[in-house]
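May I ask for an example protein's residues together with how it folds?

___
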Amino acid sequence: MQLHDKNRQEENRLIILFLYHKMGMPLSDAMVEDYLMKHDWMNYFDLKNQLLSLVEEGYLENIDDARRIASKGIFVLDNFKKEIPFSIREQIDADAQKNKANIRRKMEIHVNFSQDSTNEFPVILKLKDNNNEALVLRVVATTRSEAESLCEEFEKNADSIYADIMMRIMQKI
């Protein structure tokens, strides 16, 4: 079994590219950080530096609030993926197959809130379909916990909320 040296920068860059390639969709930095940190394949600061370098050098490209592998990154990966330890490639491949649908769903649901005043918390709830905004709800909560609850419930039930709204609208037509 090949062991991974967390300090080997070239290998770390290839691991990042391999993850993006296997997932086959744009990923947020937070998702990549959570995944790679969970497996302890590189430290946080190296990961952040590598992500920035990969974008600056054209191996990754920014898409809205996420990144995806660019054709230049795929080319490099095709030529050098054997430099990534087999155990890491196998782990990423298995996780990608198992979790791709859940991750894609998470990427399509966006929730956010802020605090405007002591009793106003604007909440933005979005559901995207093929990178198009299918539903955007903007509401104002009166407490932080209410705003958090709105975000949580929307994340859990976005599909059914969308379906309910569409059914109600379509009944009147």
